[in-house]
Design brief:
With about 375 residues, the protein is α/β, with parallel strands linked by helices. About 30% of the residues lie in helices and about 15% in strands. The chain is globular, with a radius of gyration of 19 Å.
């Protein structure tokens, strides 16, 4: 695979197996050049994200592992006189945007004849991983933090995956799965492996199909960074192919109690700042060691976007307000409404909010 390389030593991704990190130096793999997006290569006979299969960078012979992800609605509203669009990623098969990336990642696993894999997650990625593993006939094991929401845990087990609950912060589950990987398990990480980002980039391609104006704003929650990074790269692919004339204004949102990417960006540091993993209702972004953090900061800096944070009081208020607008979200998704309320007068229209997960995922404690 001559377009995926280690960001540390430059080693190309191996032609066999599915290592989550570079066997040569332990570095993280990433796309050196994102596969091109071409309208003439869209396969209109295929559904959902698979219309854009040519842009995925799949291994030779990779099947299409799908549950019908993609083609999510864009609905419109207004706030303070500005046009607001909600991209309802909460309506993907397992209730979150993760399905876009998981579909591509699972297709890569199938291409490499992987029959068992492990993953770690605060909930949504694990539920998605479990569902698509079931679809692909892959034995799955998912490590989750003890605080992971009940409905997400129920999903993981319902799909037949083995659920391993790890006491402590989110990072404890990440450490546990790394120990499993060190013993030989295939670690099909949505954070470490870059392949799912080409699936996430389809959010940008769908917005291109759904909109006439690309001078506006895109706001997304940020945990590891893969969601917003995938969207940014999708829009970059559209720009490089000449389909749009400029990038949107990007806003990445973190919970105030766990905001390593925001803190690193305002300090203009060359490495992710180590911070305490504070407790937040936005469990989907409770990530103190973001794998794609620096890559995202560099892309947002080039695009002249910003990062911001939302405190717990505003998060709860935003959750309730979205519900009152008919948009039922889990608290992590409400971060985008909080950011909108804080920045509304400085954001170019239309303002597009990525609604990452369904409220059906959330269970009040």
């Amino acid at each position: 695979m001559d377009f995926v390389r280690c960001i540390n030593c430059g080693e190309f991704y191996p032609e066999a197996g599915l290592p989550y990190s570079c066997p040569n130096c332990g570095g993280v793999f990433d796309f050196e050049v994102l596969p091109e997006f071409k309208k003439e290569l869209i396969e209109k006979s295929l559904s959902g994200i698979w219309r854009f299969r040519h842009s995925f960078g799949l291994f030779e012979g990779a099947p299409s592992i799908t549950l019908g992800e993609g083609n999510t609605p864009l609905i419109w509203d207004a706030y303070e006189g500005k046009r607001i669009g909600f991209k309802l990623e909460s309506l993907n098969p397992t209730g979150s945007y993760k399905d876009r990336g998981t579909a591509v990642l699972m297709s890569q696993l199938a291409a490499r004849n992987i029959h068992r894999a492990v993953e770690d997650s605060s909930g949504n990625a694990g539920a998605s991983f479990a569902a698509y593993s079931a679809r692909a006939g892959i034995e799955a094991e998912v490590y989750v933090p003890g605080y992971a929401s009940g409905p997400k845990r129920d999903q993981i087990e319902a799909f037949g995956a083995r659920l391993i609950s790890v006491d402590g912060p989110r990072s404890a589950a990440a450490d546990a799965v790394l120990r499993a990987a060190s013993k030989g398990d295939t670690y099909a990480s949505h954070a470490y492996l870059p392949f799912g980002m080409t699936g996430i980039a389809t959010i940008a391609y769908e917005l291109y199909e759904q909109l006439d104006d690309f001078s506006g704003t895109v706001i997304a929650p940020v945990g590891h960074g893969s969601l917003l990074l995938g969207i940014v790269r999708g829009f970059q692919a559209l720009l490089q192919s000449g389909y749009i004339q400029q990038l949107p204004f990007f806003v990445g949102v973190q919970a105030e109690k766990c905001a390593p990417i925001y803190q690193t960006s305002i300090m203009n540091s060359n490495s992710i700042q180590t911070i305490p993993e504070g407790e937040t209702l936005a469990e989907g972004v409770r990530v103190s060691r973001p794998i794609r953090g620096m890559a995202l900061i560099e892309e947002i800096k080039k695009a002249k976007g910003v990062f911001t944070t939302v405190n717990e009081e505003l998060l709860v208020e935003s959750f309730k307000e979205l519900c009152c607008r008919g948009v039922y979200v889990e608290p992590t998704s409400a971060l985008v409404w909080g950011a909108t309320k804080q920045l509304i007068y400085s954001l170019p229209e239309p303002i597009l909010l990525i609604v990452t997960g369904s409220g059906l995922k959330y269970q009040k404690s």
